[in-house]
Amino acid sequence: MTPTSIGFASLGFAPLLPWPWLAAGGVAALLLVGYAIVRRAPGAWLRFALFAALLLALANPSLIEESRRDLPDLAVVLVDESASQTLGERPVQAQRALQQVTERLAKLEGLETRVVRAGGLGPAEASGAAPPDGTRLFDALTRSLSDTPRERIAGTVVITDGQVHDVPKDFLAAGTGTNAARAQLGGPLHVLLTGKRDERDRRLVIEQAPSYGIVGQPQRLTVRVDDGQGVRGSAQVTITRDGGPPQSHNVAVGQSQSIPFVLDHAGPTILELEAPPGPAEITTQNNRAVVMVNGVRDRLRVLLVSGEPHNGERVWRNLLKADPSVDLVHFTILRPPEKQDGTPIRELSLIAFPTRELFEVKLDEFQLIIFDRYRRRGVLPNAYLKNVNDYVQRGGAVLIAAGAEFASPLSLNRTPLMDVLPAMPTGGTHLAGFLPRLTDAGRRHPVTADLPGAAGAGDAPRWGRWLRMVDAEATRGQVVMQGAADRPLLILDRVGEGRVAMMLSDHAWLWARGYEGGGPQAELLRRLGHWMMKEPDLEEDDLRASAEGNRLEIRRRSLEPNPPPVTVTAPSGQQQTVTLTDQPNGRATASVIVRETGLYRLTDGKKSTLAAVGTLNPKEFADVRASDQVLKPVAQATGGGMHWLSDDGVPELRRVRPGRETQGRGWLGLVAHHQFLVTGVRQIPLLPGIAVLLLLLGLAAGTWWREGR
To answer: What is the per-residue pLDDT for 124?
Structure first.
């Protein structure tokens, strides 16, 4: 039971008149008595006693008796359970120290012990927050002491390796003295360090890295391999881009070195760097580092070649010119070579088509080439069209917007370009109106999936008709839209490293004009163009994952339903298999809780990807060497001590009075505040009423008798 004590704590007054009145009366009484004493009047001292007794009676003094209940002081044992505390012998040291500290605290009287475990995931799962970055002990300590007055905290004993990342920057702002700093924690902060002094560990440090870069332009990042003070040599650092084949770079140990790389696609690129194990290692987890660089294209260059003026030509031009990231080069063939009307060349205002410059010298500078109703008319020799064929194989993109000319003898299908075209014309043309419809593949392909106005299988779409299309047989690729008589209308294909799309109608402009309600012409052509330019968001066969709070959101895009499960590998190497939920728009999704920060690897056997959760390079493993440098200022400011468990073991714990030293050689002190709770108060009057009345009457009578003699 908590001890209870009874005693007179103080002398109290309950004046019958306000204090100013009593003070005024006292001054008047002193003046009268002083005057009587100066005049040597008889009974002056009796008069003084009468006035004093009267004033004291009006002040109404009493003794206040309090019943008190002693309150125990609180000792906090803060245990670091961060990832770095699982290395080597640290878990054994921490557990042994915790057991000894709690046993010794239990033997001290008037002390309550509270064990706080911190540094791990903590409440992140329940709150939905991301896993913490680094060891955060002071946050947990503040939460644990929120319900306890600082006057009852005897002190805090921290069991840690010393690598703490949330020491308040303004901790010492209250003052440099022990009392001012201790007031923030309520008592001394003692540190028991796990690990060993002067540990060595190799670590790979990213000193400088770009957050974004232009695709195709050289970039550089600066790294350093650190083995410890004064250690020299070299290490082979490997760099892997998006899980591809590694490349090795020789890096001098202890020196900063720049490593070049080139971004080959837009969107995020993940670079993984790894150094081999060093001569002394605590863990190899900090031998690896990850850098994420967001790739952006510098003005996508598009070449639009229109075979003749027509209504749809301006639709293409307006769409491409409206995109600020597109640099458009557009030529319309107005005067084919066979046109001979006798007009002198010097009088022609038309610009000559720079065929050699565009299709031989600068062909590879374009990301997309569009042939809009182009026909063979001798403008482009077959040698240049063969260059376009090779351009696609090397990674370029070609879009064919075909009109009736594709079904004629002047078709591009009768050129060297036929090797990359995904359709063969039958020679016929459909001239009746028809509604473009999505195929089963089109409902899953990102170019056409979820187009505004599209309907499900068997339902009519809510958009206007087109009035002409070329009849053709699809020879390769994916038919994502079909037209009259369910014939192919839009075909998408991958050829070599490049991409080819064919739209077998030149009436998409009817949607832009609002014919019969119009349709999503701009959205369709925008998606089509960006898919051909390999924008990551429009990949039809793709696996992605991103962190949202403490959950990893997985998204699989595929043209085939029911994708296989995904294997998720955590930064620590732990694996789990996740089943995806398939959706009719080509996406399959899943969500899993993550318990670690760092780089996660995902694969379904066909596609692989990487996902960063929290900080790419966690503070927890930036430096895992046990150290007393981080917490030493806090311990010194609060009067606490620091002890290495590997050298000193657990020191003696003792209670000390406030104001005394709280640490010494081989011992740690916990302040004994002797706080109490008042459970009851009783007032005992010092001047009972009858006694005061008799006293005043006696003094008045004595004064009258003395003055009457």
So the answer is: 45
User: Which band of pLDDT confidence, cut at 50, 70 and 90, is reported for residue 217?
Assistant: confident
pLDDT in tens, 52-75: 777 777 777 777 777 777 788 999
Model pLDDT, residue 696:
67
- Please give the angle made by the CA atoms of 20, 23 and 26, to the nearest 5 degrees: 155
Residue 20's domain comprises: 4-69+679-707
The Cα–Cα gap between 330 and 220 comes to 36
- Paired tokens of 33: 């008595």
> 306 with 321, same domain?
yes
State whether 598 and 667 are in the same domain.
no
**Separation in Å, CA 94 to CA 84, 87, 118, 451:** 12, 11, 13, 60
Residue 619, domain member (yes or no) = no
Virtual torsion, Cα 413, 414, 415, 421, nearest 10 deg:
20
Q: What's the one-letter identity of residue 158? A: V
Return d(Cα 202, Cα 347) in angstroms, integer.
76
CATH of the domain at 556: 2.60.40.10
The 10 Å CB-count burial string (b at 16+, else e) for 229-241 is: eeeeeebebebbb
Are 580 and 505 in a shared domain?
A: no
Residue 537 domain-assigned?
no
Bridge partners, residue 664, by sequence: 667
Phi, psi of 121 (to 5 degrees): -65, -35
Q: Do 598 and 656 belong to one domain?
A: no
pTM over 0.70: no
pLDDT of residue 679: 72
pLDDT tens by residue, 607-626: 888 888 877 777 888 888 89
Place of tokens 């206007």: 464
Residue 428 lies in a domain: yes
pLDDT of residue 126: 45
Q: Comparing C-alpha atoms, which of 57, 181, 62, 228 is closest to residue 633?
A: 181
At residue 175, the pLDDT reads: 44
The rounded Cα 528 to chain-centroid distance in angstroms is 33
List the CATH number of the domain containing 215: 2.60.40.1930
Indicate whether 605 and 631 sit together in one domain: no
The DSSP result for 414-470, as a single string, is GSGGGGT-SEEEEEEEE-S-B--EE-TTTTTSTTTTT-TT---TTSPPSSPPB--EE
Mind giving me the DSSP string for 43-99? THHHHHHHHHHHHHHHH-EEEEEEEEEE--EEEEEEEE-SGGGGSTTHHHHHHHHHH
CB atoms within 10 A of CB 184: 19
Are 374 and 359 in a shared domain? yes
Higher pLDDT, 297 or 206: 206
Maximum pairwise Cα distance, the chain: 160
- Tell me the pLDDT tens digit for each residue of 127-141: 445 556 778 888 888
| Domain of residue 423, CATH code | 3.40.50.880
Which residues lie below 8 Å from residue 128, measured CB to CB, with a gap of 6+? 549, 550, 551
Domain count across the chain:
5
SS3 (DSSP) at 115: strand
Give the helix/strand (H/E) hosting 404. none
pLDDT greater than 90 at residue 687 = no
